[in-house]
Amino acid sequence: MQGSAKINKLWWEHLAPKALVKRHKEVERLLNRFIKTDYGNFWFSAARKPEGVIRCKRDQCIPVLKLNFVGDAPGVIAKFECLQKGHRTVSAQTEFESGKVLEDDELVMVPLISVDLVTDTLLIDATRKGRSSIDESKIIRPSLLFTIPAHYLLSPQHSPLTSYVLYQHIFGRGNSYPNDGYFYVGVTTRNWQKRWSEHQRAIKNGSPLLFHRKFREESQNGGISYLNHKVMGITDSIDALYEAEEFLVEGHWLDERRLNMIPGGKSGLRYLRENGLIAKSVVPIPDERDPILNTWFKKHPRKGLPAPWVAEKWRDNDWAIAQICGQDGRLSAEQVRAIRQLANEYTAEDIYSRIGAKDVGQVLRVLDGQTYTRVE
Length: 376
Known about the structure:
Elements: H1 9-15, H2 18-21, H3 24-34, H4 38-47, E1 54-56, E2 64-70, E3 76-77, E4 107-109, E5 112-118, H5 121-129, E6 143-149, H6 151-154, E7 164-172, E8 182-188, H7 192-204, H8 210-220, E9 226-235, H9 238-251, H10 265-274, H11 289-299, H12 317-324, H13 333-342, H14 348-355, H15 360-367
Parallel strand pairs: 2-5, 6-9
Antiparallel strand pairs: 1-4, 2-3, 5-6, 7-8, 7-9
């Protein structure tokens, strides 16, 4: 049995949404209760290591420890989801401590901690009464989620004062919860509260940036029931940060839910220089790129941004399909083709269960031509 777990207070306060900061000790107590179980002990042995991963097969637990907080009530540990057919993930790791290679039906996953805070009265009432069907357009305060690889909180390697954080803001409602909504990939040195307050001001002040515009529109139309702040990586190396950001944005470039307007990483800096948004000698820090784009829109209200850079390799359809279908939770090319073939005989609900999709909405988006259009 492992010892007790401690969540680093500095990193928790730096990364967690403001409403969750005061729940630090309660999250820690729930975590320590969990690791006393057999699976919790197994999970913790990997979760506390920066290189720790868990090998997972079908019908085994996906290693995401989800903690639910409803209003001021004590938090609870949610039931673990199990790996289903068709679940995919991406990992550059090919060698493991055990020396065993991955089996065909085996995936490697990083243990995550995900905290969900419900504060809207409609959601609180529905949760307490066990109602699963509500009018989400009437939700005033979206649920706040904070998701992070566990080792960043359990055994941090860097200081909040000298580190860069790569993150996603994901938002939406319905079947897109909690990871399949619109998303924006960003990097920052600020804490979550400061960076998000900057985004909120930009949203309220009519910012023309796609992320701010879409969030504003969806909020006005009752289209947001959750906001997931998902930490993707932490590093003190600007080169490592830019490399990770570029890979993440490029890998989702054809995803219609992506709200980034320019490439990530050094390709984004090259785009800004080549299109005259900054001088060739200027090297902006990551947090300065949104203001640069805002300034461009103010100076060129009718012109808009120059055509975004698209990597040459995206013109290779096989490569593009591999990226589109290779992300965590996405459908494989074979599943996409099967959905289209089965649509002649079966309902979306039947297809969902037959091909192992994540939910019915994933099937419907394929049939409506909203996703996976590169897959023929």
